[in-house]
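Backbone description:
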Amino acid sequence: MPRVGFSEWFALTKVVARGQLLRYRGGEQGYTTQFEQNLEKQMGVKHALTVNSGTSALISALAAAGIGPGDEVLVPAYTWVATAIAPLMVGAIPIVVDVNESLTIDPEDIKRKITPYTKAIMPVHMLNLVCDMDAIVSIAREHRLKIIEDACQAVGLMYKGRRVGTIGDAGAYSFNQFKNLNSGEGGAVLTNDDRLFTRARMFHDAGSYTREYSYESNEAPFIGMNFKVSELTGAVLHAQLPKLDPLISRLRSRYPIMVKHLSQTDKLKISPHNDPDNAAGLTVILNTAEDAKRFAKNRGVDRLIDTGRHVYTNWRPIMTQRTFDDRMNPWKWAKRDIRYSEDMCSRTLDILSRTCRVSLGPQYPIPFMELRGRSLLKAAS
C-alpha cells in the first residue's frame, strides 16, 4: 500500500480550512472531481465514479448493468466475501466458480456453471494477479453476459496493455487501507458506457435527481442509495494517485528477482500468470499442503488457505443463505434451487492449501530482495 504522508496531510488541511466537506452543494469542482478526472486519464477510461467502498462500487456497477432478482452471477471461490454479497444486494444470486492455479476464476469452470439464468461474470483480480480476460470476454460475448470486473485488489494493474477494471462492461476499485490506493475506505466504478455510468451515479446518490449532471437527460430517475464520499476522502485520493504507478513499478521490478531464485528448486513451482510481462504479484505452488505449511513459516510468506476470510467455505452468511429479513432473501427469488456445500469447489481448496503468497517488498531496496530471494530458495530446498 502507498505510504500516507505529507501530501495527504496537506490536502486534508486545505479541505478543513475551506470548510467545504461535501463533494456536492459547493464542492463540485473540488478534490473528488479532480481525482476522478485524473483517474480517468491515468486508467484510460471514459468515466470514473468515486464511492465509499469497493463493495459499494460492485453493487452500483451491478445495479447500473441491470442485474436483478432471479439473475445468476458467476463469482470465484477465492475472493473477499463482498464479491458474493454484491449480487445479493441487487436481488441476484452468486454462483461460485473454481479458481485455477493462477488464483483467478477458471474459464473452463465458468463454462460449466453457465445456465439460462446467468446474466453476469465477476472476475476478481486477486492479490495483484490478473484474470484471463481474453478467455472471459470471449465467453461473455458468446453467451451475451455482462462483465463486472472486481479489481479491488489490483488497482492500477495492467493486462496486455489495458488497466484492469476497464476491460469489462464496468469495473470496481477499492481504496481500503490494504489496497494499492489507500484512503482508509473508498472505492470507484469505472466504465466506458455512458448509460451505465449514468445509472451508477444515480444509484450511488439518492439525491442525484436534484443535481445538474451531463449524461442523465435520457435516463428516468430511480431510487438510489447513499454511497457518496466526502471531500476528505477525495483529498486523500487526489494526493495518493501520483504514487500508484511508482508502487506498481516497484512491484514489477522485484517479481523477476524472486522468480529467478525460486525457479531454481523442484520443491515448488511459480504459479502461472495470465500476463507475466506485467506481473506485480507472486505466488508459488508447493507439492503438498504440508510443504506449503512449512514454507509459510518464512517471513513474508503466507499460505493462502490459512487466510481463511477469502475462502468461500468461510463466507458464513452466503453458505447459510441468511439475510437480515427472510422476506428479503434473494435465494427465494431464484429460478431454480441453489445449494452450497463446503466441497463444491474442492479444486480451489486443494490449490489454496498448496499455494503461498510471497511478498515482493516494494518498500525494500533491490539488493535486499536479492538476499531475500536466496534465503527463500534455501528454505524451500
